UniProtKB/TrEMBL annotation, chain A:
InterPro entries reported in the protein's UniProt record: AAA+_ATPase, ABC_transp_ATP-bind, ABC_transporter-like_ATP-bd, ABC_transporter-like_CS, Oligopep_ABC_C, P-loop_NTPase
Biological processes per GO annotation: peptide transport; transmembrane transport
Gene3D superfamilies tied to this protein: P-loop containing nucleotide triphosphate hydrolases
Organism for this UniProt entry: Natronobacillus azotifigens
Record GO terms (molecular function): ATP binding; ATP hydrolysis activity
Name the record gives this protein: ATP-binding cassette domain-containing protein
PANTHER family: D,D-DIPEPTIDE TRANSPORT ATP-BINDING PROTEIN DDPF-RELATED (PTHR43776:SF7), TRANSPORT ATP-BINDING PROTEIN (PTHR43776)
Similarity comment: Belongs to the ABC transporter superfamily.
Highest taxon of the lineage: Bacteria
Domain named ABC transporter: residues: 4-252
UniProtKB/TrEMBL annotation, chain B:
Organism: Natronobacillus azotifigens
UniProt KW keywords: Cell membrane, Membrane, Transmembrane, Transmembrane helix, Transport
Similarity-based family: Belongs to the binding-protein-dependent transport system permease family.
Membrane-spanning intervals of the chain: 100-121, 133-156, 188-207, 242-268, 288-314
Domain of life: Bacteria
Swiss-Prot/TrEMBL GO biological process terms: transmembrane transport
InterPro entries: BPD_transp_1_N (IPR045621), MetI-like (IPR000515), MetI-like_sf (IPR035906)
One Pfam assignment: BPD_transp_1_N
Broad class of the protein's primary localization: membrane
Annotated protein name in UniProt: ABC transporter permease
Protein topology in the membrane: Multi-pass membrane protein
Domain ABC transmembrane type-1 positions: 96-307
From TrEMBL, chain D:
Pfam families registered for this protein in UniProt: ABC_tran, oligo_HPY
Ranges for domain ABC transporter: 8-257
Organism of derivation: Natronobacillus azotifigens
SMART domains: AAA
BP term (GO), one: peptide transport
Gene Ontology molecular function: ATP binding; ATP hydrolysis activity
Protein name in the entry: ABC transporter ATP-binding protein
Stretches of the chain forming a coiled coil according to its record: none
GO cellular component, one term: plasma membrane
Subcellular location: Cell membrane
Topology of this chain in the membrane: Peripheral membrane protein
Family stated for the protein in its record: Belongs to the ABC transporter superfamily.
UniProtKB/TrEMBL annotation, chain E:
The protein's name in its UniProt record: ABC transporter permease
InterPro entries: BP-dependent_transpt_permease (IPR050366), MetI-like (IPR000515), MetI-like_sf (IPR035906)
Annotated TM spans: 34-56, 102-124, 136-154, 160-179, 210-232, 267-284
Main location: membrane
Family to which this protein belongs: Belongs to the binding-protein-dependent transport system permease family.
Keywords: Cell membrane, Membrane, Transmembrane, Transmembrane helix, Transport
Amino acid sequence: MEFLKVEDLKIHFPIRGGLLNRKIDSVRAVDGVSFSIEQGKTYGLVGESGSGKTTTGRAIIGLNNITSGKVFFEGNDLTDNSKKVDVRKDIQMIFQDPYSSLNPKKRVIDIVAEPLRNYERLTKKEERYKVAELLEKVGLSPESILKYPHEFSGGQRQRIGIARAIALKPKLIIADEPVSALDVSVQAQVLNFMKDIQKELNLTYLFISHDLGIVKHMSDEIGIMYKGRYVEEGKTEEIFTNPQHIYTKRLVAAIPDINPQNREKQKIFRQSVQEEFEQSYHDYFDEEGLAYNLRNISNSHSVALPEKG
Amino acid sequence: MWKFIVRRLLIALPQILLLSVLVFLMAQMMPGDALSGLIDPNIDPAAIEAQRERLGLNDPWHIQYVDWITGVVTEGDLGRSFRYKMDVTEIIGQRLVNTFWLSLVTLIFTYLIAIPLGITSGRYNDTFRDQMITGYTYVGFATPLFIFALVALWILGFQFGWFPTGGSVSPGLTPGTFEYFLSRLHHLILPALSMALITTVNTVQYLRSEIIDTKQKDFIITARAKGASESRVYNRHILRNSLLPIAAFFGFEITGLIGGTIFVETIYSYPGMGQLFIESINLRDYSVVIAVVLLLGIASILGALLSDIILSLVDPRIRIK
Amino acid sequence: SEDEDTQGEQNDQGQEEDTNGGDEDDAEDDGIYSIDDFSPVKTNEGEAIDGGTITFGLVSDTPFEGTLNHNFYSGNPDVQVIDWFSESLLAVDENYAYTQEGAATFEVNEEEQSITFTIRDNVNWHDGEPVTAEDWLFAHEVIGDPDYDGPRYGQTFTSIEGMEEYHAGEADTISGMEVIDEKTLKITYANFTPSLLSSGIWTYPLAKHIFEDIPVADMSSSDAVRREPIGFGPFIVESIVPGESVTYVKNEDYWRGEPTLDGLTLIVVNENVVVQSLQNGTVDLVNSFPTDQYPENADMSNVEFLGDIDNTYTYIGFKLGSWDAENNRVDMDPDAKMADVELRRAMWYAVDNATVGERFYNGLRWNATTLIPPSHPDFHDDTIEAPLYDPERANEILDAAGYEDVTGDGFREDPDGNELVINFASMSGGDTAEPLARYYIQSWEAVGLNVQLLDGRLIEFNSFYDRVGQRGEDDPAIDIYQAAWGVGSDVDPSGLYGPNAIFNFPRYESEGNDELLARGLSEEAFDHAYRQEVYSEWQEFMVEEIPVFPTVYRAILVPVNNRVVNYNIPTNAGSEIYRYQIGVTQEEPYTN
Amino acid sequence: MKLKNKLLELKNLKTSFRIRDDYFAAVDDVSLDVHKNEVLAIVGESGSGKSALAFSIMGLHNRAKIEGNIVFKDKDLANISISKLNAIRGNEMSMIFQDPLTALNPLMTIEEQIGEVLQLHNRNLSKRKRRERVITLLDQVGIPRPKQTCEQFPHELSGGMRQRVIIAIAIANSPELLIADEPTTALDVTIQAQILDLIRDLKEKMNAGIILITHDLGVVAEMADRVAVMYAGEIVEIASVDTLFENARHPYTRSLLNSVPSDEQQDTLHVIQGIVPSLKNLPRHGCRFAARIPWIDESAHEENPTLHEIAPGHFVRCTCHEHFYFPDEKGDEAHGIS
Amino acid sequence: METTNAVENLNIENINKSPSGVSIIWREIMRDKLALISLVFLLLVTTLVYGISLFLDLDQIVKIDLFAIHEPPSSDFWLGTDYGGRDVFGQLIIGTRNSLTIGFLVTLMTGLIGVTFGLTAGFFGGHIDNIMMRVLDFFIILPFLMIVIVFVSIVPNYSIISFSLIMTAFLWMGIARLIRSKALQERELDYAQASKTLGTPRWKIMFGQVLPNVSSLIIVTMTLNLAANIGLESGLSFLGFGFPEETPSLGTLLSYARNPQTLENRWWIWMPAAILIFLLMLSVRNVGEALKRATDARQRRG
Ligand SMILES: Nc1ncnc2c1ncn2[C@@H]1O[C@H](COP(=O)(O)OP(=O)(O)OP(=O)(O)O)[C@@H](O)[C@H]1O
Ligand SMILES: Nc1ncnc2c1ncn2[C@@H]1O[C@H](COP(=O)(O)OP(=O)(O)OP(=O)(O)O)[C@@H](O)[C@H]1O
Ligand SMILES: [Mg+2]
Ligand SMILES: [Mg+2]
């Protein structure tokens, strides 16, 4: 039994219009995505803006309606509404924007205790104790308990968000661009911390980002999305050392190299990738510019290529 | 564009229908009817009752409604005023023209006042000038229109005698002549100005805050970085963008005017829709009441529609093709 | 004979010029005036110049409707407009009895129960066509037509022989009407009463050559009524701004003679601005001046205030029964809450109408005694003693009648010891309506009667009359009410107090009343003195019976610019000063 | 580095904002040179004063107090009439803004917006010429169908396209100095790469001096010739790009470099303790970075830290760098990463 | 993980609370002199009016006194008397009380309906929103003043309550629309989404999470509405669709000014009411603006 398994997930948003505001078309935000994650690992989801990463993540946690496909969590079908297994508390989310993800009108204690109040009956005292403990775990002083979010820096706020997410001891955390809004130095802080608690609590991450550098740093496995579809999936090293899809190559080439000595090399590399991209575009994408279905090229690495030829 | 308008009108249709039912019902619930005013020992009550019967005033309301709405839809017949013994359409025709001019002049005044004041206030915010203007908006907000209109009538109309104190035109002038036009204008100025001075404060304030907002937008910085002079920045960028919501408000102003005309027309004895409404309510001339409310309700709907259309015309972001 | 009777919505009126020199009060100090100090006729100061124009202010909150024909109009503002260009064919004297001074003369044939009218030869419509007997007949035919939508059809018409058949559509012609020749009309009456000769005749012809092709139902909205109205009066309508103003020019062909003025302008003047308009000469005169504004403006120097007694009285009515719609008559209920005449009498004694008149109306309304106001000097009997304010007396009467406060709550219970709450309905509109109603309640409270304002507020005009019973559906919640009646040019009160009158709101009837009313309309009553006698008796009778009691009579005030000469308040019937004689002494009005 | 081609010189620039009744310096005593055909990168965390600096040069602050000199080609922009400044900006000197979503007027077409800057500095340009020039520019910044784009409104373009339009506005009059304030932060990596290429091309073609503001060290490494590191309103280190990445000295620079995930990076990234102080709470005395490296002895800091030229063209503020070590390195060595 | 002493010893009562929204508002008002004066004035008027009216005998005030009609101010009648000989000062006190009561009632009721409606529509969105917005659209197009006048002339039992209800029925849309659009924005914000993932029920998110975030908007709008409502009431009374005179309101006193004699010669009847209305509206407005600034960090003065 896989820990998390997503099968042929499709999420379409209607576009309304016309005389009576009927549905006239749909945005295929996610269009046939399948992947699975092992417990305790980090799975990175990469892709350019609008490729459907967030939508996928939100669908798993139940914030988006699923058009078709299945999501299994520890063998339970989350898309089956008739079965009321409450596994929701085992899945939590960390949001991109540390500013809007905390209710500005609530004190830290209310924010962190919110999941506890929903699922556990604690006395006021127990609750306070628990919250202080969680804050301590994320490296904030328990004295902060009565402050408002605006009194914290971005990194601290993101950690409050994490404290809230781990309050129920979840098994899976969906982290949607958890550090994109943060400064480099603060990014480091949050990333380190996420790794720490992963070990400590045996967490599984679905780590969504468009920054390949960070995904590479965090993930064991990576899936690359393009226009709602997967173009490549594999172990982190495989993706970075042996990208197969032209789109993947292009992404990898676009990462700025931190060594100024490599400037020229990088530029030439990028140009060559760009040329290849332009030339062989039609080998990799169908008439609508969408990726083909994934095909295994090794047992841990698959690429979206057309069927035979 | 046309599709959009048609769609909006389609949405408006049930609204109007519902409005007509509501108004009709309300009118039915009003005590008395137009004939109840005819108490005269020389008039045979039976004759009055016969008239009632003939006019269908004794039918149940839904039958009366269906009769009425059929007339409205099929021949634009809004019924007949009991009091004026005329087709409602005709009475309203006269009054509507008067109210139209009053509203138009008021709107012109409103914008003539609001735009310079709002711009000055927004551009030089927190200066003395701005404080004066803001002061005016506060005073304007706190002064009920009817008090202002009453006092204005008193001082300018009577004490100084600069303006006529009632009516829409001096007697004896021939429609179409220049004197006639001037006289009408003369009769309009005071009511329109009173209404404009009071109701414009919202627009001034809105424009002010809109300008202050726009001033801080990034694209204004872009304009400055292009080397555009301050006046150009204001005229080409800030104003255009701040006036947009004001333009869009234009349609809603119409709705606002309706309330104002009731007061102003009553106070200045200006024979328009507002005055007609109050009279008709008092005299239970309810075919007129229904027609006035319905018409002004439709005006509100059209105002809102107009706003949407203006907005979609001037704002490329929501331009409808 | 415009018998504008109506209820309380009628304008207050007022009187004239400088303040009194007073009889009992010195008005200089207490601002109380008396109708006796006003003349209904303008004092002429100087010689009239040739021509000139005046501006007549029609005091009204609302525009005039514009139904500009005597045969169709329904509101008072319109008749003010009409009277300048159209007039009755018959003139009346001070008691509203027809005279031979009008555009037509008549001859009564009591035997035949008919009257023959002859229109003078020089009476012509404004377009030059003669006013004919046909026109007069035509007016009757139109008003009697089932399609007619105006309010005129009533007793004036039904008393004509064959009218009801015509009205019902059973006859093509009115059998009682006969055109003898172009200028002569003979009308035969089925119901020949003395009332006929004071207002019982329809005296407004309708220009047949203009209206004949218009369907009756469309006449009132036709251009001939609304835009180019026609008459044979002293002035001709020149232009109309609908609802707002009318300009007239003189009718050189007017049958009494060419008018002095070149023309006149009528404008609607809001009550709120009437003083200013008079002061600055915007208007020379108005139809009626709001009396409550008089004290502050009594010293206006450029006008003379004329005054006349209005033909209306305000009264308190007691509900004594209900309307029996089946039999079309009142159904008096001996167990009604107000059935005890002593209770009603006590309530009359409890209110101080003299003071009300002085204080609320500065003496321009005054204590009323009987149900025929002094506007009909021949019929109003001022010797009758009606209850005057005397709370002691009221208390005594109540005590004697068994209304005692047994529960000790300060209010009297009825003779059976049950709680007595009297519901008082009063109408809104009019400046003093609210305090006046409150005052009456207070006064009754002072003699221990628990009177409550129905619904806690004044009732709007229309619903008031609906609830009081103008459609026969009396609201049982009403015990007493305050209203006003205008007395027509004919004093016959049957329409208001007769057993078959739906407007008999008290729902009162008694043998004595029936008999007196019948006698007033009997043949003998063609004798003036006899009729006076009968109505004097009736007035006295009603003071004893008290189905209603009158509270105040009213004055009409008409300020007129000093430059105007030969003006007479139109209500002042029989003065022999006519509109065509009005002139001015200078081109411009005097200003203040 | 061609020193004679000095284009811009900042001398003791101090930009202060008014907060309630006091002025607080967001840019504090900054001196810098920019030369022709050079990319000077300014890096630093959010709130360190980078944008405030750029805005000061362009004269775009409307309520800030600016002290010191901004000498641009012999003219001191800090003390120049607004009309003269207007003649320079958009013309000889221009700026690219960070947020392509908001930096364009939503009610004007692309053509109007680019045309405006052309018209402002060349009144004689005919309408037709202007349009041609706009199309050329759009083409130049890599917009595929320039003719159609002309007629379009900003909201009809993607973020990358809009940023190109903003660049087109900036280069319309071939400026000698181009200030780019985080031009790619809002964009996807692939588009970022394209935009950076574009800027680099422009530098070469127009021989312009470029101030590139960013907090992405990767971008710095790829683009810059020289780098100035800002912290809390001050420049803490200036060096050529190679020197900086190989031999950064200032503790802040080193910490920054250490916190980026990179190929050679260990499992845990370096974290700078504490937070960037807000403008009101900036330390105004001593080493401003001291609070964030508390394990370094106070005596290691200068009392009034100044920039020291420790190698030709390599300036470092304060003496604390000589004693700096990362706490987990147990203090035995004080070398930068590489 | 071991719990450290810090957690063990955590004593919540000793931790300094950060300033809450209320105190920020309070600070802002204290800083704005005009708003402070306005607030003090409002409180003063409110307390005085409600306080004094406890001791006033309404029956006595509205008692008709035929011998004291139109008395100018004197020591017996501080503000003179009206045309029924009734004490204007007493009417002013009661009138202000009634006007304020109506103002408060209408503001509260419209607030309650508007907020609930707007929040529900905005928060649930989709079809619910669609339907609710149609309803709202319908109310919005009604010509308010006219409909109210028609209603007033229908209603048989006319009292402060029924009047307030009528006003409310046609006045809740503004705030509803405002709250809805704000709620639409808020529900998309991550904190609301976060609550969903945390298993918080929808209604709890709506009232517990979203509501506090729109509360400042609600307070500001309601304050400004209060001023507008007081104005509306007086307007209706002026037109003659107000209360019976024995339930005086400020509008009742003002409507006496329709009589030109009163307007010109008897200032004591209407002028105090006019001034009071003016000051009340101005003060409410000042306080409202200060609140608005307090809730908008950008405009805050301190
Ligand atoms: N509620 C929605 N209604 C309509 N379309 C939506 C909705 N949410 C997302 N989309 C569309 O779905 C597509 C995928 O969006 P998504 O947010 O998942 O992308 P992403 O990969 O997370 O991008 P980013 O990096 O910008 O966050 C986009 O085209 C977006 O416009
Ligand atoms: N107009 C202003 N009024 C007051 N303070 C300001 C103003 N503009 C900037 N600041 C403050 O000045 C400091 C420097 O701001 P600046 O925008 O220059 O930072 P930055 O380095 O560009 O950061 P980022 O990377 O976020 O753009 C910050 O603390 C900021 O809050
Ligand atoms: Mg996303
Ligand atoms: Mg910046």
